[in-house]
Amino acid sequence: MRSSLGAAVVGSGPNGLAAAVTLARAGIPVTVFEAMETVGGGARTLSHVAPGVVHDVCSAIHPMALATGFFREFELTRRVDFVTPEASYAHPLDGAAGSDAAIAYRDLERTASELGRDGAAYARLYGPLLDRLEGVLDVALGGPVLRWPRDLLGAAVFGARTLEQGTPLWGLRFSEQVAPALIAGVAAHSIGRMPALTHAGVAFVLGALGHASGWPVPIGGSQAITDALAADLLAHGGRIELGRPITHLDELSAFDVTLCDTSARGLVEIAGDALPAGYRQRLTRFRYGNAAAKLDLVLDGPIPWRDSRVAQAPTVHLGGTRDEIAAAEAEIARGRHADRPYVLLAQPSGFDVERNPAGVHAVTSYTHVPSGSTVDVTETILAQLERFAPDVRDRVKAIRATTAAELGRENRNYVGGDFSAGQVSMRQLLARPVLGNEPWRTPARGVYLCSSSTAPGPGVHGLAGWYAAKSALRHEYGLEAPSLALGGESS
After folding, report:
1. Given phi > 0 = left and psi -120 to 50 = alpha, else beta, which region is 380?
2. How far is residue 185's CA from residue 60's CA, in Å, rounded to a whole number?
3. Mind giving me the DSSP string for 380-416?
4. From residue 191, how far is each of 42, 288, 325 by CA, in Å?
5. Cross-strand pairs, 32
6. Alpha-carbon torsion 355, 316, 109, 308, what sign?
């Protein structure tokens, strides 16, 4: 092993910490440099709305925390307490009797039983995905898309369903509105026009997890996941320097390896001429998508949903029917703000009752807006919420709105407010950020990109950091990946 300061990791989001933990477990000295004063990037929990009340800064509910490779290896559930409700997500709809809502339970049969005439069709859509879930996750999250899948049948099942729901064929299976709306709500986690193959893929990965392991709520907030990663890093000799923005690779010349948990654009800014001109050009052509604008609320009681079943789910998708959501997303794609937009809302207080003072309910929500938007979405989101919870304004005690432009300034990886650190399109899933079987490794010696700008893309899964670190261990140190388990030995 070389005699140096070891590895530098720029950024302490879940991917950066996953990379740092992997390297430290292998015996490599690691220092993490974080520009902010707190660790965690998008997986932080702060009191920034009202004194003594905490909200998750970005991610709040974690469908990939129980099921993806890195967190399984890391044994996250032995380090962090989770509550996994029977209902993963809910989708309220307008109904004359006020009782129309679709609920995605961990029990697929129960979900289907409440979807009316389309229930059986919905079960036939998701059932084979659950039967081949490991193969589905391998295709979607196993690394670069252009590789031979481990489970050909699982890949075929996933591909066929993605092709159906990601194209104008998406209505052939259903005769009513409730089941399509439930699918559209989870598909719209990926911003863009609908139908689209990428949206359908998101719907089937997140939806299948919702019907399998569930959508868990970390006790104490997303910060609990970050703290578990940081604690493991420190326990294995790693260091974290907060308030330390890195503006150029020259600042890290004493390290023999650098892993950047930055956007692709951020890597170009930091690395400059250290990257070959052709590679730099490919990174500068990497596209960023439209954005999110946030609204954090403090309520003096739970949300008064018209359909009380919606309170069973930690995540709620607002926006009405599939056609309404598609129309709203089309408006965003045209560079306009939708009057009745898609809204994703997290209501963790009903499941993590000790997170905040008794009687206080912290709600996190966001909606989609054009990139770089400076529009305050408070009234837009409240109107959509009030549509399905008519008396909710009476319970609002504090509000904090964050525009897309502000979101991009708070976290430089979110270019223009794009929290995916790069548009999620078929082109940019195949080449994220460039085409290759190790897209984390750059042509510059010892420089790696380990953010959501690389495969497998956005989400709190740590996979991009884990894959990048394993690549660095092989190429820079000639080492195999270490055990990540509690009590595991370093290689």
Report:
1. alpha
2. 17
3. HHHHHHHHHSTTGGGGEEEEEEE-HHHHHHHSTTSGG
4. 17, 11, 11
5. 9, 240
6. positive
Compute CA 484 distance to the chain's CA centroid, rounded to the nearest angstrom. 22
Q: What angle do CA 373, 374, 375 make, to 5 degrees?
A: 95
Of 368, 358, 361, 418, nearest to 392 by C-alpha is: 361
Under 8 Å CB-to-CB from 326, ≥6 apart: which residues? 184, 193, 194, 195
| Nearest alpha carbon to residue 8 among 275, 255, 239, 226 | 255
pLDDT in tens, 294-337: 999 999 999 999 999 999 999 999 999 999 999 999 999 999 99
Sequence-distant (6+) residues with CB within 8 A of 110 are none
Tokens of 385: 């919420």
Give, as one character, the DSSP assignment of residue 306. S
SS3 assignment, position 193: coil
Tell me how far apart the terminal alpha carbons of the chain are, to the nearest angstrom: 12
Here the tokens at position 216 are 């868990």
In terms of Cβ atoms closer than 10 Å to its own Cβ (0-12, 13-18, 19+), residue 284 is exposed
DSSP class per residue in 236-282: TT-EEEES-----GGGGTT-SEEEE-S-HHHHHHHHGGGS-HHHHHH
Per-residue pLDDT of the chain (491 residues; tens, 9 = 90+): 444 789 999 999 999 999 999 999 999 999 999 999 999 999 999 999 999 999 999 999 999 988 899 999 999 999 999 999 999 999 999 985 456 899 999 999 999 999 999 999 999 999 999 999 999 999 999 988 778 899 999 999 999 999 999 999 999 999 999 999 999 999 999 999 999 999 999 999 999 999 999 999 999 999 999 999 999 999 999 999 999 999 999 999 999 999 999 999 999 999 999 999 999 999 999 999 999 999 999 999 999 999 999 999 999 999 999 999 999 999 999 999 999 999 999 999 999 999 999 999 999 999 999 999 999 999 999 999 999 999 999 999 999 999 999 999 999 999 999 999 999 999 999 999 999 999 999 999 999 999 999 999 999 999 999 999 999 999 999 999 999 999 865 43
Q: Number of helices (H) and strands (E), helices first, in the chain?
A: 17, 16
For tokens 């899948």, name the residue: 149
Residues in CB range of 462: below 8 A, 6 or more apart: 14, 15, 17, 18, 68, 70, 71, 74, 229
* Structure tokens belonging to residue 190: 């990926």
| Token digits of residue 436 | 């290759």
Q: Peptide bond preceding 456: is omega within 30 degrees of 0, i.e. cis?
A: yes
Q: What is the pTM of this model?
A: 0.96
Distance in angstroms (rounded) separating the CA atoms of residues 376 and 367: 11
Answer whether 7's CB lies under 8 Å from 442's CB: no
